[in-house]
Design brief:
Distance between the termini: 39 Å
Helix content: 10-25%
Structural class: alpha+beta
Order of helices and strands: EEHEHEEHEHEEHEE
Number of strands: 10
Shape: elongated
Strand order of the largest sheet: 4-5-3-6
Oligomer: single chain
Strand content: 35-45%
Number of domains: 2
Radius of gyration: 19 Å
Largest sheet: 4 strands, antiparallel
Number of helices: 5
């Protein structure tokens, strides 16, 4: 006989994703002095790629994602990012986005989920395994304006299954005016 689901209480649905783990382990935020990557995307991405290079950064199992460079030292990453930014300012103007993302615990969680179809990944924090769930950009804020500040908290439960666990939020269906 299966055990009844464990009620976890109300958890917010955030625009950026969800982190589940030991709160004390999550208290400390860290960086390692490296850049998570320099990424670029937008209207002139192909032109910038031809001029400056950069690999496809597959941030989703579909293999699609921006182009750029992973893991250079932070100072080098900022210099690399300046080249396409200068090209954009001096040339065609807007139409290209460039980002330098420092290695943080938030980045570690996101990157752990890049190859998972649900963008879910686990990392170790202070000896505790922590689960990060990211939302695909098409899934989040335009629909529910997540977060506790917007009243977007919903009952969550954890249910044991054969060799697995199911985390379930009970979120009402979307309707006009909600």
């Amino acid at each position: 006989m299966a055990a009844a689901p464990v009620q976890l209480g109300d958890l917010p649905v955030d625009r950026c994703g969800m982190v589940l783990g030991d709160a004390q382990a999550l208290d400390g935020s860290s960086t390692d002095g490296l850049a998570a990557g320099v990424t670029y995307w937008g209207e002139y991405a192909d032109t910038v790629h031809a001029q400056f290079g950069g690999d496809r950064i597959p941030q989703h199992p579909s293999g699609h994602g921006p182009r750029g460079w992973l893991d250079p030292p932070l100072v080098e990453a900022e210099a690399v990012a300046e080249r396409p930014q200068t090209w954009t300012r001096e040339g065609p103007g807007s139409g290209l986005m460039v980002a330098v993302d420092a290695h943080t615990d938030f980045h570690r969680l996101n990157r752990a989920g890049w190859s998972h179809p649900l963008l879910a990944g686990a990392v170790e924090f202070e000896g505790c395994s922590v689960l990060g769930l990211s939302w695909d950009s098409r899934d989040h804020s335009m629909r529910h304006r997540g977060e506790r500040a917007y009243g977007q908290v919903y009952p969550a439960s954890l249910e044991a299954r054969a060799c697995a666990a199911v985390l379930r939020w009970t979120i009402p269906p979307y309707g006009p005016g909600r």
